Amino acid sequence: MSLPLPLPLPLALPGGPEPARAAQGAPGEPDEAADAPLPVEQGSARLPSYIRDHRARLRARFTEGGATAMPDYELLELVLFRAIPRQDVKPLARRLLDAFGDFNRVLSAPPARLAAVEGVGPAVVLELKVVEAAAQRLARARVMHRPVISSWTALIDYCHTAMAHRETEQFRVLYLDRKNTLIADEAQAQGTVDHVPVYPREVVKRALELNASALILVHNHPSGDPTPSEADIAMTEQIRVAAEALAITLHDHLIVGRERELSFRAEGYL
Fold first, then answer.
1. Contact at 8 Å (CB) between 222 and 193?
2. Is 77 contained in some domain?
3. Which parts of the chain register pLDDT below 50?
4. Angle at 182 between CA 181 and CA 184, to 5 degrees
């Protein structure tokens, strides 16, 4: 009786195609890493040597000297390596910077606008948004549940990180307890490029719910200029009056611009 012969295993011939592998991702998503049990770095063996060497040099420079001496496009390349493990990412880094201006604005750009850039797929958008969220969470951790007076510089840094590069206005309220410790940081409203609707009654109502004793208002100007408008000044006064009626102190209103911040208290508006 003859036994069935085993099927031949696929062989990789020199210069020929590799044996069939698991699917590398859906068509149209070239930046998606393969769902393989091996680490992403394994895929770098298939890179041309000049790309592989370039990535190794960038990683070594970052490890040895940090980000300070690296231009924006190289730092952005390091972020893109994880999302696009088997391609040269320098052209994409350049396109992103051309579209948004600098590293910070790339990270804070809306997902829809990022996706409109040639070469950006879901994995790139996700990687950029994870880095943005990590930066904001780190900055926020330095100010939450700490006295505001002793951590004022950290508070300004957090506001700048979270809001300076947004393309639309956002209004936030920082709620403080009797010891001026930050107990809550909440985005109250989202707006357009030059306006955000704010309702003083809702701000004060939330302060009562949190048992807050003081407030700091924060909003950004996407134009980059933190000079307050007449509407900003009028809205601030309305909140101050509503808060004082309930023995809640309005400590300050910060307007975050692209390069600097303006304090109502320091400028004499409060």
1. yes
2. yes
3. 1-3, 7-45
4. 145
**In this structure, are 131 and 157 located in the same domain?**
no
- Label each residue of the chain as H, E or C: CCCCCCCCCCCCCCCCCCCCCCCCCCCCCCCCCCCCCCCHHHHHHHCCHHHHHHHHHHHHHHHHHCCCCCCHHHHHHHHHHHHCCCCCCHHHHHHHHHHHCCHHHHHHCCHHHHHCCCCCCHHHHHHHHHHHHHHHHHHHHCCCCCECHHHHHHHHHHHHHHHCCCCCCEEEEEEECCCCEEEEEEEEEECCCCCCCCCHHHHHHHHHHCCCCEEEEEEECCCCCCCCCHHHHHHHHHHHHHHHCCCCEEEEEEEECCCCEEEHHHHCCC
Q: Is 60 exposed, middle or buried (0-12, 13-18, 19+ CB in 10 A)?
A: exposed
Q: Comparing C-alpha atoms, which of 183, 199, 182 is closest to residue 191?
A: 199
Residue 207 lies in a domain: yes
Q: Which of 129, 206, 135 is nearest to 175 (CA)?
A: 206
Same-domain check for residues 261 and 175? yes
The tally of domains found in the chain comes to 2
Residue 124 · residue 182 · CB < 8 Å = no
Amino acid 142: pLDDT:
79
What residues make up the domain containing 74? 41-137
* 170-185 tens-digit pLDDT: 899 999 999 999 999 9
Q: What's 83's domain CATH number?
A: 1.10.150.20
Q: Do 213 and 168 share a structural domain?
A: yes
pLDDT at position 50 is 73
In 3D space, the residue among 78, 170, 167, 169 whose CA is nearest the CA of residue 128 turns out to be 78
Same domain, 214 and 232: yes
